[in-house]
Amino acid sequence: MVDSPAASGSEPHRRPRAHELGLIGCPTCGQVSPRRGMFDSQACPRCGAPMHHRKPNSIVRAWALLIAGLICYVPANLYPVMFTQMLGQRAESTIMNGVIEFWRSGAWDIAAIIFIASVAVPCTKFVAMAVLLITTQRRSTWAQAERSRLYRFVELIGYWSMLDVVVVALVAALVKFRQLSDIEPRIGILFFGMVVILTMLSAMSFDPRLIWDAETSNEPSH
After folding, report:
1. Chief subcellular site (predicted)?
2. What fold does the segment set 58-215 form as a domain?
């Protein structure tokens, strides 16, 4: 005799979840083991890594890191990121000043790289993470597959956010070879580096499995 969906405690047309089967997976090696507790962590029997049903305090930690990154993004744009001295002329440039100067000098490719890495990518990450956190916190079932892809996209572009720091380092190295010229990084690049790190940590703290927890009403909230 086949149990009905109501008798088995699962919804129709839905495969059982790992926690419903009493299983938990290791995020490091993928080993599936019997779960000893819903919220308490347990060590993976294969590699010893901690396993959780969901990442502890995922939304709170992701929000805190995202807000910290947003706060650091303000001085990253207001403070100069590099100091240049050429033929006795001294100047300090912010991110946007650097984009404009490179564009005017004909180096449109470097200007585009700095603009994308310093403005487009961080703003995209801020908006995307805010959308993911707000909809997940509200337990929304809206566009769950698309939101999962959005999270993977945020993870992907996060690794390219350091391009601006790399460009400043390369430009500084090139200018050093020229006589009567000098270039030094300034405090703005430090804040921008903190923005990159904090937004990457925010994305890593977010548990994308929470997106799908809204399908059922018996899932624990985080």
Report:
1. membrane
2. Butyryl-CoA Dehydrogenase, subunit A; domain 3 (1.20.140)
